Amino acid sequence: MRALTVELHQLVRSRRTWVTILLIDLLPTIVAVLLAVTDIGPRPGTGPAFLSAVLTDGTLFPLAALAIVLPLFLPIAVAVQAGDAIAGEAQQGTLRYLLVRPVGRTRLLVAKLVSVMAFVLLTLAVVAVTAYVVGVLLLGTSDAGQTTTVSGTSLTQGQMIGRTFLALAFALLCMLGVASIALFLSTVVDSPLGAALGTMAVLVASTLLLTLDAADVVSDYLPTRYWLAFIDLFRDPIHWRDVIRGTLLQAGYVVVFLGAGWANFMTRDVTQ
Amino acid sequence: MIRTHGLTKRYGAITAVDQLDLDVREGDVYGFLGANGSGKTTTVRMLLGLVLATSGTAEVLGRAMPRAGREVLPQVGALVESPAAYPRLSGRANLRVHDALAGGRRRGRAGRVDDVLDRVGLGGVDQRPVRAYSLGMRQRLGLAHALLSQPRLLVLDEPTNGLDPQGIREIRDLLTELNAAGTTVFLSSHLLAEVEQMATRVGVLDRGRLVLQESLEVLKRPTGRTYVRTPDVAAARALLDGQVEAYDEASLLVRVRDVAALNAQLVGAGVRISELAPEKHTLEDVVLAASSAAGDRFDRDVPRVGS
Amino acid sequence: MGPIAVRAWPADDSDVSAAELLTTVQGNLDHPYSGYVEAQGTLLLPVADRFTDVGELFGSSTRLRVWWRSADEWRVDRLLATGETDLIHNAQGTTRWRYEQNDADLSHDPDIRLPRTADLVPPEVADLMLSDAEPSEVSRLSAARVAGRDALGLRLRPGARQTSIDHVDVWADADSGVVLRAVVVGKGSGKAAFTTEFADFSPVTPPAERTRFVTPPGADFEFDDVLDIADAANQYAPVVPPDRVAGLVKGPASDRAVGVYGSGATRLIAIPLRGREAEPLREQLRLTPGVREEPQAALVMIGPLGVALGGSGGDGGWLVAGTVTPDTLLRAVRDLYRGMVIVGDER
């Protein structure tokens, strides 16, 4: 697909991509440095998951880094990136030139979505690798060569790597949900900022409602509901319940919002 | 090349384009004239599949738009309303992106890009990003975009916008040259002079309606009157009594079709002639006669037509 | 909370009588099972340092994973957003594993102790509330779907006049008799004070490996002589409470300083606190909305749960808490001060 090739090419060649990834990567790195220097873990029940455990086992730091970037940094970046997808082209006026080139509307949408997901994948990869290196260098590895699950049992390195990849895949799916919402808004409004802010408003509202008992009836359907369920992959045995529900919920968001975005974009007049 | 039947676009209660029947023939330089807000841009967008018609049909290169867009559009070069490009990329990089999107092979891409840059007079441009371009440079780059796929049909919306007289001249020469080589040009403009100088056929849009569509030759036909410039106005009036429609101290307007006969008659009577010519319709007269008030005027109780 | 569609699925009911169902439930209190439990407490207790955990149990939502082989072999994991606090009970005693603190504490599971997470699973709540219920106190409720299973409903209206509990509703698995959902409602309130239910349930005996625990390498391990403040008071306070307070009889497990009185839904615990333990709690009580300051004790009802603290200003005092009416609570405090026996020096 030509549009996809061009999109990916633009993604990796854009300076903005790398600056964003760098900024996202900076936070867990700072946290690692602070932990290594002070040796003070978070109080129980506070702070991101796994952060207390990395003091004894630096190889867990990729997971702590995931828990650090997943609630806020990564979704903001995804909202901005996906919000820009169509609205950004429209605002620049380049959308009409893409469409008369011609690039099919469906293809353009798919290319944009894949490019956003490539961005997330790239970010997750950079964060995970940096966090691993920083974690091992600054915080050291555990003596036993084994990793302790949240439930206090031991995992072999192989199991640990497998579960880490599952966690990354889950995070990727959650971000696909965010990207779908942002992409939908991006086809509705003509301002990339509007689409990004709209998406963030949805996420903030969802996070807020989750803390509210009165919103119990809808809480299971809020987009951020299961984001941090990836920690359940590191219990023993794996607590699949929320991971599966999270997967289905995100799939629902992807289908609904991508569908709506597609339907809207296909029938929309490009007047920008 | 372009044929529409009853093409209509409504935005809510506003009818931007109303029952348009365009007919652009192969080899034409078609001047699409209209005031600002008369619906030119909406029409262009409908032809290109960017805006979906409320009713009516449009055929471009013999195929229905927007349905056949994937086959039609690769043979069409377009400049829609204003040029646009990725501001952080250089003009060259922008063209490379579009060449890739159009399916051009990697091999030969640099050559194709250089070629269109040369044609629009940007051959020597450096690597500066497009956001640092002047308006005129952007306009030239937009034309380069349109020319990239060697189109059979060029659809240009205000192509000389932002260019200096020298630039306008160059673009006119370029379009004339392309037209001579077989490219049909659909030129949408509000500049009468521009159209008058280039077009072979003219369509005039007024408040969304096509009020005139004719070849320029027919439009500029003689009026049946002859313009006479002479120092002997009184003598000429006496001679041509009854045929003079207007006069001042140095010229007359005579209702006579046969200029040669008139010349012989005047010279025979000893009237000195410094200039003698058949009067022709001007495009401006024709257009103004066909159109109503300016599109961006807001008079009370006059329904407004969007673009 | 399952998806609405699943919850709306009608449950198969049965025409079993309330008395029969009560017998089934009481007879299946040690049936093996495993599953995932969500408990929701609405009682905001006045908590001071050493009672914080108890406050959380009754005042917030708790997610638990349970593997129950028998009363002697079980594991209850409390799932937290950032880790886990697990209780593993086996022949060695009860081990508490805390992931975030990276430590494991072993204790000899004393009979006299504060409530803990393992007490929140529906079968345990049913055990506590229904163990000596009379057939005259129960009636049938219509069946419900709980954790995707048919569950038969039973309502207990405790007959004892001292109790503060209006009724306890339980739904027992139609197949295994294990209680899948329990709802406690206090007198004078239409709302549930406490709800606990399985969201996933299996009546199959879980594997033995679930109830084994080996302290992971690098984690701290400790043996706790004293489990909590109730255990500490029970072991070391130089008093013996009377055999009967407010008309409730002391339970057989109360052979030392702490007294557990009554049974089923009418129960209270009396703990002798020292001055430095009592004082912060007294402060908290004073700040709690709805507190009653009587001459002999400060008292507050939080839903069906009453808390009273005797003594005053810097002194120690009896802490009395339980599912009894305010008057019963006050009578209990008075009876405690009247009937307690000082047993000389600290043991």
From TrEMBL, chain A:
Q: Which GO terms describe its cellular component?
A: plasma membrane
**Listed Pfam families:** ABC2_membrane_2
Q: Name one GO molecular function term.
A: ABC-type transporter activity
Question: Which keywords are on file for this protein?
Answer: Membrane, Transmembrane, Transmembrane helix
Transmembrane stretches, start-end: 21-40, 60-87, 108-140, 160-185, 192-212, 243-265
Supply the PANTHER family for this chain. Answer: INTEGRAL MEMBRANE PROTEIN-RELATED (PTHR37305), MEMBRANE PROTEIN (PTHR37305:SF1)
Name of this protein: ABC transporter permease
Q: Which organism is it from?
A: Nocardioides agariphilus
What lineage does the source organism belong to?
Bacteria, Bacillati, Actinomycetota, Actinomycetes, Propionibacteriales
TrEMBL record, chain B:
Signal peptide position in this chain? none
Q: Which domain of life is it from?
A: Bacteria
Q: Where is the ABC transporter domain?
A: 2-232
Does Mitochondrion appear among the keywords? no
Q: Which UniProt keywords apply?
A: ATP-binding, Nucleotide-binding, Transport
Q: Which residues form a coiled coil?
A: none
Could you confirm whether the keyword Nucleotide-binding appears in this record?
A: yes
InterPro entries tied to this protein: AAA+_ATPase (IPR003593), ABC_transporter-like_ATP-bd (IPR003439), P-loop_NTPase (IPR027417)
Q: Specify one Pfam family.
A: ABC_tran
Single GO molecular-function term?
A: ATP binding
Q: Which family does it belong to?
A: Belongs to the ABC transporter superfamily.
Q: What is this protein called?
A: ABC transporter ATP-binding protein
- Where does this protein come from, organism-wise? Nocardioides agariphilus
